[in-house]
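note to self — DONT lose this again. spent like an hour looking for the file last time. sequence + predicted structure for the chain T wanted, 543 res
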Amino acid sequence: MRTTRIVIYFGLFLFLLACVFSQAKNVVHKKNGTLISTPAQHNKKASKSKVFLLHANTLAYNKELNPNAQILSGDVCFRHDSAYMYCDSAYFYEQFNSLEAFSNVRMEQGDTLFVYGNYLFYNGNTQIAYLRENVRMENGQVTLFTDSLNYERIPNVGYYFDGGMIVDSLNQLSSFYGQYSPDTKIAVFNDSVRLKNPKFTLYSDTLNYNTNSKIATILGPSVIVSDSGIIHSSLGWYDTVKNTALLLDRSRVETNEGDKILIGDSIFYNRDTGFGEVHGNMTLIDTLRHATLEGQYGYYDDVKKIAFATDSARFMDYSQGDTLYLHADTMKMTTIDSIYREVKAYYGVRFFRTDAQGVCDSMQFNTKDSVLYMYKDPILWNNEYQLYGDTIAMFMKDSTIDYAHVIQFAFAAQHVDSAYYNQLKGSDLKAYFEGKEVRKIDVSGNAESIFYPRDDYGAMIGLNTTKSGYLTAWVKERKLDKLKIWPSPVGKMIPIPDLTPNQKVLKDFYWYDYLRPQNKDDIFHVIKRKAAEMPKKSNKFVH
């Protein structure tokens, strides 16, 4: 019996000894409780492919529990190329060139990358590390937190797939899926992405982030929320250091109150200054004042409250019920005292409202006094009436025109029939409106008139021409109702058959119907006035 026990003990001793020497010339002896590696481990050719055990306090083998593993515990350390792996205990699958590490796991790559966790499985053939539970990857000032991280050494990329977070010196980013490259410093995020900054929070579907430059690249539907406003974008970038952004693909910038909305194909936006510059299909919506400014290029300055648009610029004011559509080469809109709005339009102005249409070189509209000024060759139409002169000021009341003032040289004409026109001319003219139609016209200084009275059957009797210092004409149902002229009026009646072509019109009469905007889209159809139809010139401009 005693002999049998000795044989068993001796056989077990040989088995354990064989396990120890199974390191294949790599581990040769144990000193002070630590396994010491021989120089053979540092063979350059072998180090490119084999995982080496550097030290451990104890080594064991259990064929029944895990026949392919060496069981290690106490200050365990492995090396694979330039990567070192530490843990409290491990299974080493030498024949498979892999290992499992447990408790206080630490993986080091050079002197800049450190990965921590509770569990690690490392495959030396694929050079992929699988870390689980309380995982933390540190690379300089960048730290990645997750419970499930796969780290691929060949591309030097770590990624999580069940929720995680990356934190640097400025921002905190979280998502369901995340990926980080220590070489490029680029992090990739997908699904439920959130970037938290001291000044704003960015929510996204897909986002790339550079931990060096602190620039976030937007690659999917995203919302940026701050105290100053909200940004909606699906493509672009945001510099979290400079608080500037380039937003593409019809992005949208809103003020926090929601009263200003800026939309464009390409928006360069500075959050600190509130300045947004737009290239391509700019739309600026003022929801509080019921106005919209459009153009192919423009900008909005939230601090100075200035908006600018050019290239197919259009301004729409729908605050008065009847929308005003205004086009010009260049437009500028300024908000004054947070209440009133001033709009200036330059070059090739054309506008359309159902009750009035007009063209001029430049225009200015101020909501404080509700006056629209038309400068340089202005023409204003209302139904059959046409007004033109040196300068025209339209005074608005509620939702309609109260009266139009044609300053200095002034001319009013009404189409009567065929080639016949009622005409009024003078130094100054005021046309008063009621129910969106002309009801009365006052002419002051050098007043002249031509009108065609009708008999009870509607037939024209002849041409009545007058000259006086002042003139007032009343209109009823779009027809001349009565006429008052003073002082010392001069006039005559000429029968229709006796009229000559020159007598039918006053000097400087032109019918500009071919210039008249026909609808809201026709405002873009800019037509040059014929050179022969330029009665007067003006040096007035909008400043």
